[in-house]
Specification:
homodimer; Arc Repressor Mutant, subunit A; Tetracycline Repressor, domain 2; 10 helices; DNA-binding
DNA sequence: AAGCTTCTTGACTGAATGGTCAAAGTTGAT
DNA sequence: ATCAACTTTGACCATTCAGTCAAGAAGCTT
């Protein structure tokens, strides 16, 4: 028989993690890290396998031994990310204090942008180009989660526990404001000059903004 | 609110280039329109000259008769845009009423996003990738304008005419919130389902948000 | 150490893509 | 109508890029 089966693709149906050698673990990790770096800076089409391979310290054929195609690497990256992406909103607790819950959500999201700007840019790149590879995720899981939490917020507003605002727009505004600091870092840096943390003052500003917006 | 002025066509007065025939005018315009469509949806590297030429209804060599290279088309597009991009902030009047001025600026920017989402995405694409082709513009003209208007806002705040807020973050927040509706249209559409204008309710929401934020 | 499996790579391939060029077609002023 | 300048294009070129392949190197297990 020709080439041994590359163990790259996740086998549907079977266990998600068939035992992998240390080498596989290490190299898959390296590849995903390198791919995150490259995809987040250049978008899907702008990224090349050679770049990713070089960044990962592997040869291109070696990279393709671990992942069947560029597409596969990209999907693996997104998949690895989606759960973490939903986590902050998932934690919004209907039984908590409305203002605290919403403020906490905003701060979690901001912290996410600060800690994982590359992931944020990867997302932004995808959505800018029409979200072809995220359509399933967004219009099912994300949409369901947003609708669920939006109705929680709407109930809070109806009960007069926060100001009456459109919950969808509230959520969109949190996304816009927090992700902006990660996605537009280049612009912020150029405007404020070097030597500034792009997130400097962002937490305090957004805290103030949402406290004012939500006060009943 | 009146629609903002469309992105400027050609500089009529001084010419670095000799008078252009009607054919040139028409075809250059077609190419730039096509290029805007393609670049804004796929980014610089993701766009191809064949795509742009097809969209413009020209052959690729014919396109290259009007612009020397892909790079040249792209630069022409950006150049055509930069002035219009600054216009809304330029209009912020130091002698006006602070809240009215800032609110008006926000609405102008939102209207810009609504009317020219492709231009907004073109910008977003550039900045996401580190703004290599916008570095000059951002760190000189845009920066100077932002600093100028930020100090106007800071003065208003010191005088107690609006709430004490960080003017840079205020400006960033306006950019983030208004451009989000243009840049992340794909996501908003998928979450709210089809048949919704992504900007629906945005004006009212943002109006409310900034009124609350700015009240002294 | 033997023998099997897993990794790695140099050399390719075919398709895209940015860009060139000379020749052909079109336009417009005289 | 003529002719020179302007416009258009088919054919072509060099490079880049995703992906293949067969053979060799390195690990593991006994």
């Amino acid at each position: 028989m020709p080439a041994p089966r590359p163990p790259s693709a996740e086998k549907p149906g079977t266990l998600a993690k068939p035992a992998r050698s240390r080498i596989q673990q290490r190299n898959r990790q390296r590849i995903l890290d390198a791919a995150l770096e490259v995809f987040s800076n250049h978008g899907f089409r702008g990224a090349t396998l050679d770049q990713i391979a070089a960044e990962a310290g592997l040869s291109k054929p070696n990279l393709l031994y671990y992942f069947d195609s560029k597409e596969t690497v990209h999907r693996a990256l997104l998949t690895r990310l989606l759960d973490d992406w939903l986590a902050p909103l998932r934690k919004l607790d209907p039984s908590g204090a409305p203002d605290v819950e919403i403020l906490s959500y905003m701060h979690r999201k901001l912290e996410m942008s600060r800690a994982y700007p590359r992931e944020s840019r990867l997302f932004a790149n995808e959505i800018l180009q029409g979200a072809p590879r995220l359509e399933g995720f967004i219009s099912t899981e994300l949409r369901a989660l947003v609708d669920e939490k939006a109705s929680v917020i709407a109930a809070w507003a109806r009960a007069g526990r926060i100001a009456p605002i459109d919950p969808h727009h509230l959520i969109f505004s949190i996304w816009a404001l927090t992700q902006h600091y990660a996605d537009f870092t280049a612009q912020i840096d150029m405007i404020r000059g070097p030597g500034h943390d792009p997130f400097e003052g962002a937490g305090a500003f957004l805290d103030h903004l949402y406290k004012r917006l939500l006060a009943p």
